[in-house]
Amino acid sequence: MFVLGIIARLVYLQIVKYDFYYNISLNQSSKEFTIVQNRAVVTDRNGVVIAKNKKVASLYTFSKQIDDPKSLIAEMRSKGILLSKKTTQKILNQEGFVWIKRGVDIDTAEYFSKKYKSVGYIVDEGRYYPYNNLFSQIVGFVGVDNQGLYGVEKLYDEDLKGEEISIIALKDSTGKYILFHDKEEIIAKERSFSITIDKNMQMIAELSLMEGVQEFGADKGIAIGMDVKNGDILFAVTYPGFDANRFSNYSQDLWKNYSTFYLFEPGSIMKPFTFIYLLEHDMINLDEKIFCENGKYDIYNHTIKDVHPYGTLTAADVLVKSSNIGTIKLNSRIQAKDFYEYLKSLGFGSATQVLGSGEESGLLRIYKKWSGLSQPSISIGQEILVTPIQIVRLYAAIANGGYLFVPKFVKSNEKPLATKVFGEKSLSVVRPLLREVVERGTATTAKSEYVPIAGKTGTAQKFDKRLGRYSNTEYTASFAGYFPYDDPKVSMVVIYENPKKSIYGGTTAAVTFKKIAEQVAVLLGYKIKHLRIKNVG
Hints:
This protein has two domains: 29-194, Penicillin-binding protein 2a (Domain 2) (Alpha-Beta Complex); 199-523, DD-peptidase/beta-lactamase superfamily (Beta-lactamase). It is an alpha+beta fold and 537 residues long. It is elongated, with a radius of gyration of 29 Å. It has 18 helices and 21 strands.
């Protein structure tokens, strides 16, 4: 059948279409080009279309036929069609076939086509993102030829791209250019490609994050939520973002999916991992007393401070109250090599292999290059760089019984990939402690009367490369956790960069975490008897 198809095509081109293509070859004002149609739509996890195709026009001209190039350019400008310098120069120099503008609305194209015999257009497909900013850092965008340039649109361009159609423009007997396809118009069943994001959860996270950035005076906000049972990313938002329909109007820094590309020192959201190790190896008794030096502790010619000047705390309260000094003292029981290998087994310093996004790997230097201060610093979340997605999947592992999933932004029929990294022995102790953090520790602002939340606050000074030391004015505030505590469904991380109102994760990120968690829990069917609904009327 394949050979017969080739023979039939050759007969069609060489005999049936011979005169047509011969005449084209003699015509000096013809042009062959390619367009792509029927790119697959992108949907959220529930089938809501978040990237689709729309009919647009692509204006072209055989510029040698233009009587007054300057008038044409001026009128196009008056109609809102702004030409690049390169295109303008080609028209002025009358260089032959020129693409004037892609993605023009059809009525405008029709107007110029009727007024100027040298101008024509084809009905093409452009990409349209109906939710503007909402999915832009995940889905990305396409170029003028409907080719993926960023995000899922680029990573999965082979799966998404449509069929190429060759078109020839030829001047007819009246001097007007007409178009010929090398095949009949494609009538294809709409194809779809699904991501794991839930549109409603994404909207909740975006609105909550926007309010938080404004309320706390932060430079940036990031929120990411994961299904703890399979690694699906349910929402991932960075504010401020960009409108994918007008991506070229924004700084490229805003294009990034910061849930996978944002590198930060995690601060105290690292502390539970020290406790898990100690519990797994029978190196800690939660009732033992740890002297926290009344808030100041000199080690390796460096002073470690606690926010509050604690005297003696139980080992349990070292975590609940987030004592840096107590954590460092407890972590000193672990050999450097063992601590390094443990952190590597949790994925620190390595890519998560996330499906559907690029990512940073973070930074964890090999223990042989550590200074005396390195291990104490790492235990409290300094001298290590992580990404939000690395943290959210580790808190998912705390919630789900110890399984570290490969995260996914795109839906897959394959069995979720996971590695067992924590034992139930340690988790059965740490989980109640993370609940205590919310009940009476550093994250009481995350305490909800509607959905039980467990987690850990983080506040970290940012390292100033210019000064070669930690900044006294720039901080990263965070809260990482999961909910509902009694039946975990979602792990989440909320991060604020340089919040001005308060530098602490407990008074910034934890507030937003709670706001998102309460609303997402409703969507998940969690039995909430009463829930405040903000009046937006």
